[in-house]
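Encode chain A's predicted structure.
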Amino acid sequence: MSIGRLATLPGLSRLCLCLGLCAPLPAAADVVIGVAVPRSGAYVAVGEQVLRGIEAAARDANARGGLDGETVVLDVQDDACDSNTATSVANHFVRSEVRLVVGHVCSNASIAASDVYAQNGVVMITAASVAAKLTDRGLPTIFRVCGRDDDQGRLSAAVLAERFRDRKIALLQDLTPATRALAAATKDNLNRIGINETLFSAFSPSDADDAALADRLKAAGIEVAYYGGDAAEMGRLVRISAERGFRPQWFGTSAIATPDFSKVAGGASNGVLMTFYLDPSRQPAAAAVVKSFKAEGTDPTGSTIYGYAALQALVAAGDFSHGKDPRRIAATLHAERFDLVLGTVGFDAKGDVTAQGYVLYVWKDGTFTPAGSK
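Encoded structure for chain A:
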C-alpha cells in the first residue's frame, strides 16, 4: 500500500515519513506540516501530483535530519478544491496547532483558507494556486512557489499576438473563478496590444453544451480557441469539437498540465498549446530528485516538482531560522534565498517566488514539451 493511500485511512491522516517508515501519530518532537490538496473532485490529478512531490520532499528531508533536527510529519487533508471545505481544513489545522501548511491547490481554496491562516499566524505555501489576489493582499505568512495568473495572461496574450494576430480568436470561460480570471487577464493584455478577440464567451461544461459551443465556434469561423478549464473539461471539449469536424488551434493553461488531458482528448490533443510554469524536471537543480522519482517508476510530471519545492522551502527556512516558529520561518522566507529544485530562489514582499515564470508548451503523443520559437 502506498503512503498516499495510507493518508486516507481513518486514524492515519498524519504520516511520519522518516526514511520511508510510517507512524499513526507524531511524537512530541515532531514537526507537523499540514497538507491540503484535492483528493476528490475535478482536480484530483493535480492534487495527486502535488502530494506526490510533498511526500518525496518530506522523506528526503527526514533522511537528512528533518526540519532543524526534528522529524517532519504530514497531516494530509482533502479540500476538494472547494472554498468552504478549504476553510474547514484550515480551521482543523489551527485547532490541531499545526502552524506550517503546504496547500492549497485551487486558487479559490487557497484564498478562502489564507484568511484563516493569516489571522492565526500560520505559514501557508502553495504549489499550484495562481490567482494574483492570493498574494496581492500582502498577507505576511502566505507564499507560493508557482506563477501568477496575471503573468500567465500576459504570456498568453503575447503568444496570441505573435502567432495568431490575423486569426479569429475566441476567449472562453466556464463561469468558474479560475477560468474567468484567466480569460479576463488574457483579454485585457490582448486588447492592450491592439488586438480584439472575435468572441468572448462563457459556457456551462457538459457534453451537450460542449457540442453546442463547438458548433457555435465553427459557425463563427473561429480559428484559435483559448480556454483555461481543467484537464478533464478541456480534454472533452477538444475531443467533442474534433468529432464534430471543428479543429481550431486550441490554447490551454497550466490547468491541463497532466496526462489526464491527453487521455480524455485522445489524438485531438496533438498540437494543443499550453502555458505552464518552467518545467523544473528539466533543470539541473532537480536532476537528483527527478532521478529518484524515475527510479521508483514515477514520472514527476506537471506540479509534482512544485509540491516538492513547497515543502523543501519550508524545511530550508526552518533550518535557517533554527526552529519551527512560523513567524521566524515567514520572515526568513521573505528575507533569504534558497537552493531548491527550482534553482536558487527567494520570495518577494508579497510572497511570490522569484523563479522564472511561464513558458509555452505544445502537446504531442500524450506529453507536452516546450513549443520553441514560432
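The chain has 13 helices and 15 strands.
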